[in-house]
Here is the input.
Amino acid sequence: MSSELFDDASEPVRGERRWPMVAAVAAAIVLALLRPAEIRIAPPWVLPVIEFLLLIALIIKDPGRIDRQSTLLRGLSIGVVGVLVLDALSATIKLVLILIHGGALTNSAGELLRAGGIVWLSNVIAFTLLYWVFDAGGPAARAHGMPRNLDLAFPQQLNPEIAASGWRPRFIDYQYLGLTSSTAFSPTDVLPLAPWAKTAMGMQALISLAVLGLVVARAVNVFT
Here is the structure.
């Protein structure tokens, strides 16, 4: 990735606030605790505790605006996201297998829809954080300037005249990307340019399609 920047990084750095990311991780932890036992890969407390401890360590090391670049902080951020993605993907696989082969969960349309909703939302949050952490080197790197070789191309970067000078994507932009990728099953206003971004968005679309399609179809079958 080129170190050349789109915008002027000589202005005072104003990194993102951490609370949106903390709120997203907290929501993912709550969803993991609400998940039915049939689609867990470990006791209900194991992964939430790991996620919580990594999050606390990250907050302690960098409690304010996200503008400090260090290997430790980068590692903690990737660790949090890695556990969330692993948790969401494992729950998705277990749910799909239950839907295909049958199980107690498929006997109740209400429980099935609840489980499907939890898994779907967990994936939205996990991929939102994945895009946020890996795009352009992460939030701390973005605070110091955007690279010319973009991973994800936002409309404000493709058409600078519609954005303020020095515009950078914030957490809400990645949250919108995560949501639309799971509902439209394809890119909407943000284009994936890097191979990892294309792979992630493709995986997210397939996961969402599988979860929504199989869950709704099975729930309708139970109702009828």
Remarks:
- The longest helix spans residues 71-101.
- The chain is about 60% helix and 0% strand.
- Strands lie at 152-153, 191-192.
- The radius of gyration is 19 Å.
